[in-house]
Amino acid sequence: MDKKWWKESVVYQIYPRSFKDSNGDGIGDLQGIISKLDYLNHLGVDVVWLCPVYQSPNDDNGYDISNYQSIMNDFGTLSDWEELLAGLHSRGMKLIMDLVVNHSSDEHAWFVESRKSQDNPYRDYYIWSPGKDGQPPNDWGSFFSGSAWEYDEKSEEYYLHLFSRKQPDLNWDNPKLRKEIYDMMTWWLDKGIDGFRMDVINLISKVPGLPSVSGESNGEQPTYHFGGDYFVNGPRVHEYMQEMNREVLSKYDIMTVGEAVNVTPEEASLYVSEDRNELNMVFHFELMDVDSGPGGKWNVQPWKLADIKSIISKWQVALDGKGWNSLYMNNHDQPRMLSRFGDDKLFPKESGKMLATLLHTLQGTPYIYQGEEIGMTNVQFASIDDYKDIEIVNMYKEYLAAGHSEEKIMNSIYIKGRDNGRTPMQWNSESQAGFTTGTPWLAVNPNYQDINVENALADPDSIFYYYKKLIELRKQHEIIVYGSYTILAEENEQVYAYLRTLGEEQLLVVLNFFGEPATFDLPSTVKFQAKELLISNYEVNPEEELNTIQLRPYEARVYKLK
Ligand code: NOJ
Protein backbone atom coordinates (compact mmCIF):
# COMPACT_ATOMS: atom_id res chain seq x y z
CA MET A 1 0.00 0.00 0.00
CA ASP A 2 1.30 3.43 -0.93
CA LYS A 3 2.33 5.64 1.94
CA LYS A 4 0.74 9.08 1.89
CA TRP A 5 0.77 12.02 4.28
CA TRP A 6 -3.02 12.11 4.38
CA LYS A 7 -3.18 8.50 5.51
CA GLU A 8 -0.90 9.35 8.40
CA SER A 9 -2.81 12.51 9.34
CA VAL A 10 -5.51 13.30 11.85
CA VAL A 11 -8.04 15.89 10.67
CA TYR A 12 -9.82 18.42 12.88
CA GLN A 13 -13.11 19.75 11.56
CA ILE A 14 -14.06 23.35 12.28
CA TYR A 15 -17.61 24.66 11.93
CA PRO A 16 -16.60 28.32 11.82
CA ARG A 17 -19.94 29.76 12.89
CA SER A 18 -19.63 27.96 16.22
CA PHE A 19 -15.91 27.85 16.91
CA LYS A 20 -14.79 31.22 18.26
CA ASP A 21 -16.15 34.72 17.86
CA SER A 22 -13.54 37.49 17.88
CA ASN A 23 -15.75 40.58 17.44
CA GLY A 24 -18.73 40.05 19.73
CA ASP A 25 -21.39 39.67 17.03
CA GLY A 26 -22.27 36.19 18.31
CA ILE A 27 -20.97 34.43 15.19
CA GLY A 28 -17.66 32.61 15.05
CA ASP A 29 -15.14 34.01 12.58
CA LEU A 30 -11.71 33.59 11.00
CA GLN A 31 -9.88 35.77 13.54
CA GLY A 32 -11.49 33.61 16.22
CA ILE A 33 -10.01 30.50 14.62
CA ILE A 34 -6.63 32.20 14.26
CA SER A 35 -6.64 32.92 17.98
CA LYS A 36 -7.00 29.18 18.66
CA LEU A 37 -4.32 27.78 16.36
CA ASP A 38 -1.96 27.11 19.24
CA TYR A 39 -4.69 25.08 20.89
CA LEU A 40 -5.05 22.91 17.78
CA ASN A 41 -1.31 22.57 17.55
CA HIS A 42 -1.19 21.48 21.17
CA LEU A 43 -3.77 18.79 20.46
CA GLY A 44 -1.45 17.63 17.70
CA VAL A 45 -3.78 17.46 14.68
CA ASP A 46 -2.25 17.60 11.21
CA VAL A 47 -5.03 18.98 9.04
CA VAL A 48 -7.90 21.38 9.56
CA TRP A 49 -11.07 20.97 7.50
CA LEU A 50 -12.89 24.27 7.39
CA CYS A 51 -16.62 24.08 6.74
CA PRO A 52 -17.75 26.68 4.16
CA VAL A 53 -16.53 30.22 4.76
CA TYR A 54 -17.67 31.62 1.43
CA GLN A 55 -20.19 34.36 0.81
CA SER A 56 -23.63 33.00 1.57
CA PRO A 57 -27.11 34.16 2.58
CA ASN A 58 -26.93 31.36 5.19
CA ASP A 59 -30.11 29.52 4.41
CA ASP A 60 -28.10 26.39 5.26
CA ASN A 61 -25.24 27.99 7.21
CA GLY A 62 -22.86 28.48 4.34
CA TYR A 63 -23.72 25.35 2.35
CA ASP A 64 -25.61 27.74 0.05
CA ILE A 65 -22.82 29.68 -1.60
CA SER A 66 -23.46 32.91 -3.48
CA ASN A 67 -19.82 33.57 -4.35
CA TYR A 68 -17.21 30.80 -4.31
CA GLN A 69 -14.29 33.20 -4.40
CA SER A 70 -15.04 35.54 -1.57
CA ILE A 71 -15.39 35.21 2.19
CA MET A 72 -18.65 35.57 4.13
CA ASN A 73 -18.79 39.01 5.74
CA ASP A 74 -19.69 37.49 9.12
CA PHE A 75 -16.45 35.52 9.04
CA GLY A 76 -14.01 38.22 7.88
CA THR A 77 -12.06 38.93 4.72
CA LEU A 78 -9.85 37.13 2.26
CA SER A 79 -6.85 38.59 4.01
CA ASP A 80 -8.04 37.07 7.31
CA TRP A 81 -8.31 33.78 5.47
CA GLU A 82 -4.77 34.18 4.11
CA GLU A 83 -3.56 34.84 7.65
CA LEU A 84 -5.30 31.66 8.77
CA LEU A 85 -3.67 29.59 6.04
CA ALA A 86 -0.24 31.04 6.84
CA GLY A 87 -0.82 30.49 10.57
CA LEU A 88 -1.64 26.82 9.98
CA HIS A 89 1.26 26.25 7.61
CA SER A 90 3.77 27.94 9.90
CA ARG A 91 2.72 25.51 12.64
CA GLY A 92 3.09 22.52 10.32
CA MET A 93 -0.65 22.02 9.85
CA LYS A 94 -2.55 21.84 6.59
CA LEU A 95 -5.89 23.24 5.46
CA ILE A 96 -8.65 21.60 3.46
CA MET A 97 -11.61 23.61 2.26
CA ASP A 98 -15.22 22.60 1.80
CA LEU A 99 -16.26 22.37 -1.84
CA VAL A 100 -20.03 22.67 -2.30
CA VAL A 101 -20.76 22.21 -5.98
CA ASN A 102 -23.79 19.95 -6.19
CA HIS A 103 -25.71 23.18 -5.75
CA SER A 104 -25.11 26.89 -5.25
CA SER A 105 -27.20 29.53 -3.53
CA ASP A 106 -30.13 30.98 -5.48
CA GLU A 107 -28.33 34.28 -4.86
CA HIS A 108 -25.27 33.19 -6.82
CA ALA A 109 -24.79 35.36 -9.94
CA TRP A 110 -25.19 32.25 -12.12
CA PHE A 111 -28.64 31.55 -10.74
CA VAL A 112 -29.68 35.20 -10.75
CA GLU A 113 -28.96 35.12 -14.50
CA SER A 114 -30.33 31.64 -15.01
CA ARG A 115 -33.77 32.47 -13.69
CA LYS A 116 -34.10 35.66 -15.78
CA SER A 117 -35.47 33.86 -18.83
CA GLN A 118 -35.55 30.51 -20.55
CA ASP A 119 -33.03 31.67 -23.16
CA ASN A 120 -30.55 33.21 -20.74
CA PRO A 121 -26.98 31.96 -21.42
CA TYR A 122 -26.83 30.69 -17.82
CA ARG A 123 -30.17 28.84 -18.01
CA ASP A 124 -28.37 25.56 -18.54
CA TYR A 125 -26.15 25.98 -15.47
CA TYR A 126 -29.08 24.63 -13.45
CA ILE A 127 -31.74 21.96 -13.91
CA TRP A 128 -35.02 23.38 -15.23
CA SER A 129 -38.19 21.66 -16.32
CA PRO A 130 -41.65 22.78 -17.46
CA GLY A 131 -43.27 20.13 -15.22
CA LYS A 132 -46.40 18.19 -16.13
CA ASP A 133 -50.02 19.30 -15.85
CA GLY A 134 -49.17 22.12 -13.50
CA GLN A 135 -47.19 19.75 -11.23
CA PRO A 136 -43.45 19.37 -10.73
CA PRO A 137 -41.76 17.05 -13.25
CA ASN A 138 -41.41 14.24 -10.72
CA ASP A 139 -42.11 13.21 -7.14
CA TRP A 140 -38.63 13.61 -5.70
CA GLY A 141 -38.57 14.94 -2.16
CA SER A 142 -36.01 17.41 -0.89
CA PHE A 143 -33.64 16.31 1.89
CA PHE A 144 -35.08 19.25 3.78
CA SER A 145 -38.79 18.27 3.41
CA GLY A 146 -41.32 18.95 0.67
CA SER A 147 -40.83 18.74 -3.07
CA ALA A 148 -37.34 18.93 -4.60
CA TRP A 149 -38.79 21.32 -7.21
CA GLU A 150 -39.65 24.98 -6.98
CA TYR A 151 -41.71 26.85 -9.52
CA ASP A 152 -40.20 30.09 -10.73
CA GLU A 153 -43.06 32.43 -11.59
CA LYS A 154 -41.02 34.74 -13.73
CA SER A 155 -39.42 32.26 -16.10
CA GLU A 156 -42.32 29.80 -15.81
CA GLU A 157 -40.45 26.58 -15.11
CA TYR A 158 -39.48 24.46 -12.13
CA TYR A 159 -35.90 24.17 -10.92
CA LEU A 160 -34.45 21.24 -9.01
CA HIS A 161 -33.19 21.65 -5.45
CA LEU A 162 -32.30 18.44 -3.61
CA PHE A 163 -31.73 20.58 -0.51
CA SER A 164 -33.51 23.85 0.36
CA ARG A 165 -35.28 25.94 -2.29
CA LYS A 166 -32.42 28.39 -1.88
CA GLN A 167 -29.95 25.68 -2.98
CA PRO A 168 -30.64 25.03 -6.68
CA ASP A 169 -28.79 22.01 -8.11
CA LEU A 170 -26.08 22.78 -10.63
CA ASN A 171 -26.23 21.06 -13.99
CA TRP A 172 -23.02 19.04 -14.23
CA ASP A 173 -23.94 17.85 -17.70
CA ASN A 174 -23.03 21.34 -18.91
CA PRO A 175 -19.29 21.41 -19.77
CA LYS A 176 -19.15 25.19 -19.34
CA LEU A 177 -20.31 24.89 -15.75
CA ARG A 178 -17.78 22.15 -15.07
CA LYS A 179 -14.99 24.29 -16.45
CA GLU A 180 -16.02 27.21 -14.20
CA ILE A 181 -15.91 24.89 -11.18
CA TYR A 182 -12.48 23.53 -12.09
CA ASP A 183 -11.14 27.06 -12.55
CA MET A 184 -12.51 28.05 -9.17
CA MET A 185 -10.91 25.00 -7.53
CA THR A 186 -7.60 25.83 -9.20
CA TRP A 187 -7.83 29.39 -7.87
CA TRP A 188 -8.03 28.07 -4.29
CA LEU A 189 -5.36 25.45 -4.83
CA ASP A 190 -3.02 28.09 -6.21
CA LYS A 191 -3.50 29.98 -2.97
CA GLY A 192 -1.85 27.00 -1.29
CA ILE A 193 -4.65 24.96 0.25
CA ASP A 194 -4.04 21.28 0.84
CA GLY A 195 -7.24 19.72 -0.41
CA PHE A 196 -11.00 19.61 -0.45
CA ARG A 197 -13.87 18.00 1.41
CA MET A 198 -16.54 17.67 -1.25
CA ASP A 199 -20.14 18.13 -0.21
CA VAL A 200 -22.61 15.42 -1.40
CA ILE A 201 -20.34 14.86 -4.36
CA ASN A 202 -21.96 11.56 -5.36
CA LEU A 203 -25.23 13.38 -6.18
CA ILE A 204 -23.93 15.56 -9.02
CA SER A 205 -25.10 13.40 -11.94
CA LYS A 206 -28.85 12.99 -12.44
CA VAL A 207 -30.51 10.35 -14.60
CA PRO A 208 -31.68 11.97 -17.87
CA GLY A 209 -35.44 12.31 -18.11
CA LEU A 210 -35.64 12.79 -14.31
CA PRO A 211 -38.06 9.88 -13.75
CA SER A 212 -40.52 9.73 -10.87
CA VAL A 213 -39.98 7.20 -8.11
CA SER A 214 -43.58 5.99 -8.08
CA GLY A 215 -44.36 6.17 -11.81
CA GLU A 216 -46.62 8.71 -13.47
CA SER A 217 -48.47 11.29 -11.40
CA ASN A 218 -52.24 10.75 -11.32
CA GLY A 219 -52.85 14.45 -11.04
CA GLU A 220 -53.43 14.30 -7.27
CA GLN A 221 -51.40 16.16 -4.71
CA PRO A 222 -48.11 14.26 -4.93
CA THR A 223 -46.34 12.68 -2.00
CA TYR A 224 -42.61 12.97 -2.17
CA HIS A 225 -40.12 10.15 -2.30
CA PHE A 226 -36.40 9.76 -1.94
CA GLY A 227 -35.31 9.84 -5.58
CA GLY A 228 -31.90 8.38 -4.81
CA ASP A 229 -32.07 5.82 -7.61
CA TYR A 230 -31.93 8.74 -10.02
CA PHE A 231 -29.14 10.81 -8.54
CA VAL A 232 -27.07 8.76 -6.06
CA ASN A 233 -23.96 7.66 -8.01
CA GLY A 234 -25.69 8.86 -11.17
CA PRO A 235 -24.75 7.74 -14.68
CA ARG A 236 -21.92 10.21 -15.35
CA VAL A 237 -20.55 10.79 -11.84
CA HIS A 238 -17.34 8.82 -12.36
CA GLU A 239 -16.71 10.48 -15.69
CA TYR A 240 -16.93 13.84 -13.91
CA MET A 241 -14.78 12.79 -10.98
CA GLN A 242 -12.08 11.52 -13.33
CA GLU A 243 -12.27 14.68 -15.37
CA MET A 244 -11.96 16.79 -12.20
CA ASN A 245 -9.01 14.70 -11.13
CA ARG A 246 -7.31 15.05 -14.51
CA GLU A 247 -8.01 18.76 -14.90
CA VAL A 248 -7.37 19.86 -11.32
CA LEU A 249 -6.62 17.45 -8.47
CA SER A 250 -3.79 15.47 -10.08
CA LYS A 251 -1.73 18.64 -10.43
CA TYR A 252 -1.31 19.10 -6.67
CA ASP A 253 -0.14 17.07 -3.68
CA ILE A 254 -3.45 17.30 -1.84
CA MET A 255 -6.03 15.22 -0.02
CA THR A 256 -9.64 14.80 -1.06
CA VAL A 257 -12.59 13.39 0.81
CA GLY A 258 -16.01 13.20 -0.76
CA GLU A 259 -19.23 13.09 1.16
CA ALA A 260 -21.06 10.12 -0.36
CA VAL A 261 -24.70 9.57 0.50
CA ASN A 262 -26.02 5.98 0.54
CA VAL A 263 -22.93 4.23 -0.79
CA THR A 264 -21.89 0.64 -0.19
CA PRO A 265 -18.20 -0.25 0.10
CA GLU A 266 -18.32 -1.59 -3.47
CA GLU A 267 -19.70 1.70 -4.77
CA ALA A 268 -17.25 3.64 -2.63
CA SER A 269 -14.30 1.75 -4.08
CA LEU A 270 -15.18 3.20 -7.46
CA TYR A 271 -14.46 6.64 -6.00
CA VAL A 272 -11.43 5.77 -3.91
CA SER A 273 -9.57 2.88 -5.53
CA GLU A 274 -6.08 4.19 -6.07
CA ASP A 275 -5.98 3.04 -9.69
CA ARG A 276 -9.14 4.99 -10.63
CA ASN A 277 -7.83 8.51 -10.03
CA GLU A 278 -10.89 10.04 -8.44
CA LEU A 279 -10.82 10.76 -4.69
CA ASN A 280 -8.72 9.66 -1.71
CA MET A 281 -11.60 8.70 0.57
CA VAL A 282 -15.30 9.19 1.16
CA PHE A 283 -17.53 9.80 4.15
CA HIS A 284 -20.13 7.06 3.97
CA PHE A 285 -23.32 7.09 6.05
CA GLU A 286 -23.83 3.46 7.01
CA LEU A 287 -22.64 3.95 10.55
CA MET A 288 -24.58 7.20 10.91
CA ASP A 289 -27.75 5.36 9.88
CA VAL A 290 -27.31 2.60 12.44
CA ASP A 291 -30.04 4.06 14.68
CA SER A 292 -32.49 4.99 11.90
CA GLY A 293 -35.64 2.92 11.51
CA PRO A 294 -37.48 2.15 8.27
CA GLY A 295 -38.98 5.68 8.38
CA GLY A 296 -35.51 7.21 8.04
CA LYS A 297 -33.38 9.50 10.17
CA TRP A 298 -36.14 10.78 12.47
CA ASN A 299 -37.57 7.32 13.07
CA VAL A 300 -35.04 6.71 15.82
CA GLN A 301 -34.35 3.19 17.08
CA PRO A 302 -31.62 2.00 19.44
CA TRP A 303 -28.33 1.01 17.78
CA LYS A 304 -26.86 -2.44 18.22
CA LEU A 305 -23.19 -3.18 18.77
CA ALA A 306 -23.48 -6.10 16.35
CA ASP A 307 -24.46 -3.66 13.58
CA ILE A 308 -21.65 -1.25 14.44
CA LYS A 309 -19.15 -4.11 14.30
CA SER A 310 -20.43 -5.50 11.05
CA ILE A 311 -20.56 -2.12 9.29
CA ILE A 312 -17.06 -1.14 10.37
CA SER A 313 -15.65 -4.59 9.58
CA LYS A 314 -17.20 -4.59 6.14
CA TRP A 315 -15.61 -1.23 5.26
CA GLN A 316 -12.25 -2.09 6.81
CA VAL A 317 -11.96 -5.28 4.81
CA ALA A 318 -13.41 -3.98 1.54
CA LEU A 319 -11.06 -1.03 1.16
CA ASP A 320 -7.89 -2.62 2.57
CA GLY A 321 -5.11 -2.40 0.01
CA LYS A 322 -7.40 -0.72 -2.53
CA GLY A 323 -8.61 2.61 -1.24
CA TRP A 324 -8.78 4.36 2.10
CA ASN A 325 -11.37 4.85 4.85
CA SER A 326 -12.43 8.01 6.64
CA LEU A 327 -13.13 7.49 10.34
CA TYR A 328 -15.76 9.64 12.02
CA MET A 329 -18.66 9.31 14.41
CA ASN A 330 -19.91 12.86 14.40
CA ASN A 331 -19.72 16.13 12.50
CA HIS A 332 -21.83 19.28 12.00
CA ASP A 333 -24.69 17.18 10.57
CA GLN A 334 -24.81 14.62 13.36
CA PRO A 335 -25.57 14.46 17.05
CA ARG A 336 -22.62 14.36 19.40
CA MET A 337 -20.91 10.97 19.41
CA LEU A 338 -20.54 10.88 23.20
CA SER A 339 -24.30 11.23 23.70
CA ARG A 340 -25.17 8.86 20.88
CA PHE A 341 -22.73 5.99 21.32
CA GLY A 342 -21.34 6.56 24.80
CA ASP A 343 -22.82 7.56 28.14
CA ASP A 344 -22.61 11.32 28.63
CA LYS A 345 -24.08 11.13 32.15
CA LEU A 346 -22.54 8.25 34.07
CA PHE A 347 -19.34 7.58 32.13
CA PRO A 348 -18.51 10.61 29.99
CA LYS A 349 -14.74 10.33 30.35
CA GLU A 350 -14.56 6.58 30.04
CA SER A 351 -16.91 6.31 27.09
CA GLY A 352 -15.49 9.38 25.33
CA LYS A 353 -12.04 7.84 25.49
CA MET A 354 -13.29 4.41 24.45
CA LEU A 355 -14.93 5.82 21.31
CA ALA A 356 -11.81 7.83 20.54
CA THR A 357 -9.77 4.65 20.83
CA LEU A 358 -11.97 3.03 18.20
CA LEU A 359 -11.71 5.92 15.75
CA HIS A 360 -7.96 6.27 16.12
CA THR A 361 -7.01 2.60 15.84
CA LEU A 362 -8.86 1.57 12.69
CA GLN A 363 -7.40 1.70 9.21
CA GLY A 364 -8.23 5.11 7.75
CA THR A 365 -7.91 8.79 8.51
CA PRO A 366 -9.57 9.92 11.77
CA TYR A 367 -11.66 13.10 11.79
CA ILE A 368 -12.19 14.93 15.08
CA TYR A 369 -15.18 17.26 15.14
CA GLN A 370 -14.69 20.42 17.22
CA GLY A 371 -15.53 19.82 20.86
CA GLU A 372 -15.34 16.04 20.57
CA GLU A 373 -11.89 16.21 22.15
CA ILE A 374 -13.35 17.71 25.33
CA GLY A 375 -16.44 15.52 25.44
CA MET A 376 -19.09 17.99 24.30
CA THR A 377 -22.60 16.54 24.36
CA ASN A 378 -26.05 16.88 22.81
CA VAL A 379 -28.34 19.65 23.99
CA GLN A 380 -32.09 19.84 24.70
CA PHE A 381 -33.62 23.24 24.05
CA ALA A 382 -37.12 23.74 25.46
CA SER A 383 -38.74 25.19 22.37
CA ILE A 384 -38.50 24.69 18.61
CA ASP A 385 -37.86 28.44 18.43
CA ASP A 386 -34.44 27.86 19.96
CA TYR A 387 -33.42 25.69 16.99
CA LYS A 388 -31.87 27.26 13.90
CA ASP A 389 -31.16 24.38 11.54
CA ILE A 390 -33.30 24.45 8.39
CA GLU A 391 -33.56 20.66 8.37
CA ILE A 392 -34.95 20.63 11.92
CA VAL A 393 -37.30 23.56 11.38
CA ASN A 394 -38.75 22.18 8.13
CA MET A 395 -39.13 18.67 9.52
CA TYR A 396 -40.88 20.00 12.62
CA LYS A 397 -43.51 21.81 10.52
CA GLU A 398 -43.98 18.87 8.16
CA TYR A 399 -44.34 16.28 10.93
CA LEU A 400 -46.65 18.47 12.98
CA ALA A 401 -48.89 19.02 9.94
CA ALA A 402 -48.89 15.26 9.37
CA GLY A 403 -50.26 14.72 12.88
CA HIS A 404 -47.19 13.61 14.87
CA SER A 405 -47.15 14.67 18.51
CA GLU A 406 -44.95 17.60 19.41
CA GLU A 407 -43.37 15.60 22.20
CA LYS A 408 -42.31 12.86 19.82
CA ILE A 409 -40.93 15.34 17.32
CA MET A 410 -38.92 17.21 19.96
CA ASN A 411 -37.61 13.93 21.25
CA SER A 412 -36.31 12.93 17.84
CA ILE A 413 -34.67 16.37 17.53
CA TYR A 414 -32.97 15.82 20.89
CA ILE A 415 -31.55 12.55 19.64
CA LYS A 416 -30.81 13.27 16.00
CA GLY A 417 -30.99 17.02 15.28
CA ARG A 418 -28.02 18.71 13.65
CA ASP A 419 -27.99 21.61 16.11
CA ASN A 420 -26.71 19.15 18.72
CA GLY A 421 -23.37 19.38 16.98
CA ARG A 422 -23.57 23.11 16.29
CA THR A 423 -23.82 24.69 19.73
CA PRO A 424 -20.84 26.98 20.34
CA MET A 425 -17.49 25.53 21.27
CA GLN A 426 -17.04 25.59 25.04
CA TRP A 427 -13.78 27.34 25.83
CA ASN A 428 -14.16 28.16 29.53
CA SER A 429 -16.69 28.63 32.33
CA GLU A 430 -17.15 32.35 31.73
CA SER A 431 -20.22 33.91 30.14
CA GLN A 432 -21.28 32.14 26.88
CA ALA A 433 -18.54 29.58 27.47
CA GLY A 434 -15.96 32.10 26.29
CA PHE A 435 -17.27 31.69 22.75
CA THR A 436 -18.49 35.27 22.38
CA THR A 437 -18.84 38.49 24.34
CA GLY A 438 -22.18 39.02 22.60
CA THR A 439 -25.27 36.86 22.16
CA PRO A 440 -24.44 33.60 20.38
CA TRP A 441 -26.37 32.81 17.18
CA LEU A 442 -27.30 29.43 18.72
CA ALA A 443 -27.46 29.04 22.49
CA VAL A 444 -24.53 27.58 24.37
CA ASN A 445 -25.02 24.13 25.93
CA PRO A 446 -25.74 24.80 29.63
CA ASN A 447 -23.19 22.18 30.67
CA TYR A 448 -20.30 24.48 29.68
CA GLN A 449 -19.44 25.17 33.33
CA ASP A 450 -18.10 21.63 33.56
CA ILE A 451 -17.29 20.74 30.00
CA ASN A 452 -14.87 23.25 28.55
CA VAL A 453 -11.36 23.54 27.15
CA GLU A 454 -9.91 25.29 30.18
CA ASN A 455 -11.01 22.47 32.48
CA ALA A 456 -9.81 19.84 30.03
CA LEU A 457 -6.36 21.39 29.82
CA ALA A 458 -6.11 21.58 33.62
CA ASP A 459 -6.94 17.88 34.12
CA PRO A 460 -4.13 15.48 33.17
CA ASP A 461 -6.71 12.67 32.96
CA SER A 462 -9.03 14.54 30.56
CA ILE A 463 -10.42 13.31 27.28
CA PHE A 464 -8.29 15.99 25.62
CA TYR A 465 -5.00 14.48 26.74
CA TYR A 466 -6.19 11.02 25.75
CA TYR A 467 -6.79 12.30 22.20
CA LYS A 468 -3.38 13.93 22.23
CA LYS A 469 -1.81 10.63 23.16
CA LEU A 470 -3.75 8.72 20.48
CA ILE A 471 -2.54 11.22 17.89
CA GLU A 472 1.06 10.80 19.08
CA LEU A 473 0.79 7.00 19.01
CA ARG A 474 -0.26 7.15 15.38
CA LYS A 475 2.98 8.96 14.60
CA GLN A 476 5.05 6.43 16.52
CA HIS A 477 3.52 3.15 15.31
CA GLU A 478 3.08 2.60 11.62
CA ILE A 479 0.83 -0.35 12.30
CA ILE A 480 -1.88 2.01 13.56
CA VAL A 481 -1.99 3.67 10.17
CA TYR A 482 -1.27 0.85 7.76
CA GLY A 483 -2.07 -2.43 9.54
CA SER A 484 -4.78 -4.72 8.16
CA TYR A 485 -7.88 -5.32 10.24
CA THR A 486 -9.34 -8.58 11.57
CA ILE A 487 -12.29 -8.69 13.92
CA LEU A 488 -12.02 -10.91 17.03
CA ALA A 489 -14.78 -12.60 19.02
CA GLU A 490 -17.40 -11.20 16.70
CA GLU A 491 -20.21 -12.81 18.71
CA ASN A 492 -19.29 -11.01 21.95
CA GLU A 493 -22.30 -8.77 22.61
CA GLN A 494 -20.52 -6.27 24.82
CA VAL A 495 -16.98 -6.09 23.59
CA TYR A 496 -15.62 -4.88 20.27
CA ALA A 497 -12.15 -6.30 19.72
CA TYR A 498 -9.90 -6.48 16.69
CA LEU A 499 -6.41 -7.11 15.57
CA ARG A 500 -4.35 -5.00 13.22
CA THR A 501 -1.46 -6.69 11.46
CA LEU A 502 1.58 -5.28 9.72
CA GLY A 503 4.49 -7.61 8.95
CA GLU A 504 5.51 -9.31 12.19
CA GLU A 505 3.62 -6.90 14.38
CA GLN A 506 0.11 -7.03 15.73
CA LEU A 507 -2.02 -4.44 17.47
CA LEU A 508 -4.75 -5.71 19.78
CA VAL A 509 -7.66 -3.36 20.48
CA VAL A 510 -10.25 -4.32 23.09
CA LEU A 511 -13.23 -2.06 23.79
CA ASN A 512 -16.06 -2.53 26.24
CA PHE A 513 -18.92 -0.69 24.57
CA PHE A 514 -21.19 -0.58 27.62
CA GLY A 515 -21.50 0.68 31.19
CA GLU A 516 -21.34 -2.79 32.77
CA PRO A 517 -18.27 -4.95 33.34
CA ALA A 518 -17.50 -7.36 30.50
CA THR A 519 -15.24 -10.30 29.76
CA PHE A 520 -13.11 -10.79 26.70
CA ASP A 521 -11.45 -14.12 25.89
CA LEU A 522 -8.53 -13.75 23.55
CA PRO A 523 -8.86 -16.36 20.79
CA SER A 524 -6.05 -18.92 20.96
CA THR A 525 -5.24 -18.21 17.32
CA VAL A 526 -3.66 -14.91 18.39
CA LYS A 527 -0.01 -15.79 19.07
CA PHE A 528 2.63 -13.51 20.52
CA GLN A 529 5.73 -13.56 22.70
CA ALA A 530 5.74 -10.05 24.10
CA LYS A 531 3.16 -7.42 24.75
CA GLU A 532 3.25 -3.69 25.34
CA LEU A 533 0.28 -1.68 26.60
CA LEU A 534 0.14 1.42 24.40
CA ILE A 535 -2.87 3.15 25.88
CA SER A 536 -5.89 2.52 28.07
CA ASN A 537 -8.56 4.60 29.77
CA TYR A 538 -8.14 2.95 33.20
CA GLU A 539 -5.15 2.00 35.32
CA VAL A 540 -3.99 -1.38 34.05
CA ASN A 541 -1.24 -3.64 35.28
CA PRO A 542 0.91 -3.88 32.15
CA GLU A 543 1.92 -7.44 33.06
CA GLU A 544 -1.64 -8.70 33.28
CA GLU A 545 -2.30 -11.91 31.33
CA LEU A 546 -4.37 -11.44 28.21
CA ASN A 547 -6.10 -14.84 27.91
CA THR A 548 -9.17 -13.57 29.68
CA ILE A 549 -9.55 -9.86 30.23
CA GLN A 550 -12.06 -8.45 32.72
CA LEU A 551 -13.08 -5.06 31.47
CA ARG A 552 -14.55 -2.23 33.52
CA PRO A 553 -17.37 -0.02 32.14
CA TYR A 554 -16.32 1.37 28.76
CA GLU A 555 -12.78 0.15 29.30
CA ALA A 556 -10.50 0.45 26.27
CA ARG A 557 -7.05 -1.05 25.86
CA VAL A 558 -4.56 -1.15 23.03
CA TYR A 559 -1.61 -3.55 23.08
CA LYS A 560 1.21 -4.00 20.68
CA LEU A 561 2.05 -7.70 20.37
CA LYS A 562 5.25 -9.22 19.05
C1 NOJ B 1 -23.99 18.11 3.52
C2 NOJ B 1 -23.53 19.16 4.47
O1 NOJ B 1 -22.60 18.59 5.36
C3 NOJ B 1 -24.76 19.69 5.15
O2 NOJ B 1 -24.47 20.50 6.25
C4 NOJ B 1 -25.57 20.42 4.12
O3 NOJ B 1 -26.79 20.81 4.66
C5 NOJ B 1 -25.84 19.55 2.89
N1 NOJ B 1 -24.73 18.74 2.49
C6 NOJ B 1 -26.23 20.40 1.72
O4 NOJ B 1 -25.11 21.14 1.29
From TrEMBL:
The UniProt entry, under Pfam families, shows: Alpha-amylase (PF00128), Malt_amylase_C (PF16657)
EC annotation? Answer: 3.2.1.10
Keywords, A to Z? Answer: Glycosidase, Hydrolase
Task: Recall the GO molecular function terms of this protein's record.
Answer: oligo-1,6-glucosidase activity
Q: Which Gene3D superfamilies match?
A: Glycosidases (3.20.20.80), Golgi alpha-mannosidase II (2.60.40.1180), Oligo-1,6-glucosidase, Domain 2 (3.90.400.10)
**Domain Glycosyl hydrolase family 13 catalytic, chain residue ranges per copy:** 13-422
What SMART domains would the database entry show?
Aamy
- Keyword hit for ATP-binding: no
Q: What is the reaction catalyzed?
A: Hydrolysis of (1->6)-alpha-D-glucosidic linkages in some oligosaccharides produced from starch and glycogen by alpha-amylase, and in isomaltose
The superkingdom of the source organism is Bacteria
Enzyme class name: hydrolase
Question: Which family is it part of?
Answer: Belongs to the glycosyl hydrolase 13 family.
**Alphabetized NCBIfam families for the sequence:** PRK10933.1
Q: Write down what this protein is called.
A: oligo-1,6-glucosidase
Upper classification of the source organism reads: Bacteria, Bacillati, Bacillota, Bacilli, Bacillales
The gene it comes from is malL_2
